[in-house]
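Appendix B, Record 12. Input sequence as logged:
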Amino acid sequence: ASSGGTATGDALDSALTTLERQPGVGGKRPPAAIVLLSDGKSTRGSNDPRDVAARAGKLRIPIYTVALGTPAGTIRVKRPGGQPGFETRPVPPDPVTLEAVARASDGQAYSAEDAGSLDTVYHRLGSQLGTRDAPREITAAFVGGAALLLAAAGALSLRWFGRLP
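Logged structural output:
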């Protein structure tokens, strides 16, 4: 967060609650997944990320985590209490917790130390979560449709003219 705090558990809880409320078709919820990008340890919030992940696992909603940054990573944020100026705070990623979250929800954990490795992670996630066009043989459907039309034409011809064309 831009304020220098990370509420990972609360963010996951909010995403999971939103997905739980999605209307389904025929009593089945649509397929869903959560992608969590985090630049630091969870320092705020009332929900433990691992508990939310366990709930997601029971609902079959995988959480894919991406630990951003390096152990020496920092951010500059405004000083607390309305004081003027900025301060630098450490934001080491928490790969241990993020891996536990992914594992508990049947997702997968990734890490990205720079923009290039984050691009690779996005590509991997896209191949797991996205859809792709694939060629399919549809000739049988057209032949079946043509056969139905031919049978309908024959039935109508018999009814109207008393003979087949």
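The longest helix spans residues 139-161.
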